[in-house]
Amino acid sequence: MKEITLSDHPRSKIAEKAEERERNYQEAIGTWQEQQARYDDWKRAREREVRKGGLLARISSWLATLSTGEPKAPPYPVKPGPCAEERTWAQGAAAEDKVAAFFARQLGDDWTLVRGYCNPRGEIDQILVGPAGIVAMEVKNINGIVHCDGDRWWREKIDAYGNNVGTKDIADRLGRSPDRQVNEPTDILQDFLTRDFGDGQIGRVVVLAHEKSVRGQLKDPHVDLVAVLKDWEIRTLPCQVRRICDSDVSAIVSAIEQNHRFHDKKRA
Global pTM? Predict the structure, then answer.
């Protein structure tokens, strides 16, 4: 299987956050250096006064310290590690890599995996293009039982004893459920490809990539398939009926790349 990466949102966000963290850390070091310099100046000045004034100056300095407290040397800043957001992005990137590796083991070179296609309605994590058709996928790294009722998706987390220890809605920062996250950008891409390659539906899949993901009750999920990666059989991949010849596979992949660059340029 061939693989093309158009963008890598999780790792881009991780790099941005790491740069911000390093920038803040260097600023903290600069502030510490200024504070340390003032402390050193104070300490040298006091030592000079004590040496100059003899025993009386020592006693006076000691009494002043008792009443007002001696200034403390500033602590050296601790370099912070990745925040919770970065860890979440890293886990998301690892989940997408896991899905890509799954397809690499299953599919031949007549298939291409396109990663990180974007248009004004969002990002499609992964798009498979091959002889059997086109499939757009939203990858989720969710530990728990995933349920949905139309556009409302939620996760039920179960502990080792079978107890429900928390229920949480599944949505992005815009409040979109996983089906909307894949469907909205896919609708635009499908309309674009139809103009050059004729009618043909793009399959829509939500992939649950976490090793502890479980399919729960799925009522009207608005996608063709909700797949648990560890249990997924490739023959259930939702593809269109008509086959795509090799030359059209290449042309479709090129068109997807060009459309991504077009929207990327408009965003810039």
Answer: 0.83
Contact 110, 179 (CB under 8 A): no
pLDDT tens string 49-81: 766 666 566 666 655 665 555 678 899 999 999
Residue 157 β-bridge partners: 166
Written as one letter, the residue type at 28 is: A
Phi and psi for 205 in degrees, rounded to 5? -135, 135
Write the CB contacts of 110 (distance below 8 Å, at least 6 apart in sequence).
130, 131, 246, 249
In degrees and rounded to multiples of 5, residue 48 shows phi and psi of -65, -45
The SS3 of residue 205 is strand
Single-letter amino acid code for the residue at 236: T
Radius of gyration of the chain (CA): 29
Q: Terminal CA-to-CA distance of the chain, rounded, Å?
A: 31
Give the whole-angstrom CA distance, residue 119 versus residue 129.
Answer: 18
pLDDT digits (tens, 9 = 90+) for 118-163: 999 999 999 999 998 999 999 999 999 999 999 999 999 988 777 8
Tokens of 177: 């459920």
Distance CA 236, CA 28 (A): 54
Retrieve residue 240's tokens: 């269109």
Q: Is 206 in contact with 141 (CB distance < 8 Å)?
A: no
